[in-house]
Amino acid sequence: MNTPSLEPGLYIVATPIGNLGDVSRRAEAVLAACDLVACEDTRITGKLLNHLNIRKTMRRYDDHADAAARERLLAEMGEKAVVLVSDAGTPLISDPGYRLVREARERGIAVTSIPGASAAIVALTLAGLPTDRFLFAGFLPVKAKAREDTLKELSGVPATLVFYETGPRLVASLEAVASALPGREVAVARELTKLHEECRTGTADDLAAHYRAHPPKGEIVLMAGPPLAPQAPGEADIDALLRAALAEMPPSKAAGQVARAHGLDRKALYARAMELKA
Ligand code: SAM
User: Fold this and answer.
1) For residue 107, how far is the Cα from the chain centroid?
2) Spans of the chain below 70 pLDDT
């Protein structure tokens, strides 16, 4: 592969989430041309580089690295092209890199991103849940109370919710979703881009029952559709609401009150209130 030299700076390079065929040509070119690869685990990134026939100096880096380690990398970016990769997918997305990018930007170091796979996006493209708005919430807390609180906090967000998950915790998370987000459409995407890729949809209760019986292996994305639109009251309900209001106020006020409370047409309700009164 042609390996033109790269300008000094920080290069954020996305890598495959399971299928090596997903490495982009640009990712390959930047990995081949860079001076240093900062990574979470040199064995995992070493395998990718081997697959691409690239030999590079690798250095372990994560956001918990001490200030001196980060400082050293930032100083090197003055004259070297430094790549940041994570074990899989897009760096910074539930993976290290945030602090490094932030500090690089503060120092005026050029930051370039080479996009590629991210499990959250792949999962959304499979699930058939609304994608016009979604909220990526990373991993749910491990402790039951904190998990419940997080789900309650997110329950009003008018968007599809996307979580990263692990096999051993999936059933507990589905049970928590069933109780905090009742009635929502839920999807579980597993082993994306790999041989045993699957995406199951249903209620959280049904999916919990399935995975209780078939404990899931591998990597998982859990999604919950947006809150359900409130059901408009039926004709019988509207009559009951109007009758209750008419017992206490004149038809025009009763129609206005029921219309406001349920988002209904006031004129139509007034006509019906007059019929009921007659
Ligand atoms: N940075 C990565 C990305 O862009 O997707 C995510 C890293 S995060 C530490 C790892 C989590 O991502 C896994 O626990 C799983 O929830 C999700 N994940 C990664 N690869 C996956 C795959 N092939 N299928 C399903 N989920 C995956």
Assistant:
1) 30
2) 1-4
Q: What is the pLDDT of residue 3?
A: 56
Q: To test the ligand 1 pocket, which listed residue (13, 17, 140, 200) has its Cβ within 8 A of the most ligand atoms?
A: 17
Number of CB atoms found within 10 A of residue 8's CB: 15
Residue type, 109: I
Residue 169's pLDDT is 97
Burial status of residue 200 (CB atoms within 10 A of its CB: 0-12, 13-18, 19 or more):
middle
Q: How many CB atoms lie within 10 A of CB 225?
A: 20
Burial of 221 (0-12, 13-18, 19+ CB in 10 A): buried
Confidence (pTM): 0.85
Residue 189 has φ and ψ, to the nearest 5°, of -110, 130
Residue 250 region, left (φ>0) first, then alpha (ψ -120 to 50), else beta? Answer: beta
Residue 194 CA to ligand 1 centre (angstroms): 12
Residue 227: the pLDDT is 95
Ligand 1 pocket mutation, candidates 164, 188, 194, criterion most atoms within 8 A of CB: 164
- pLDDT tens figures, 82-104: 999 999 999 999 999 999 999 99
What is the pLDDT at residue 233?
A: 78
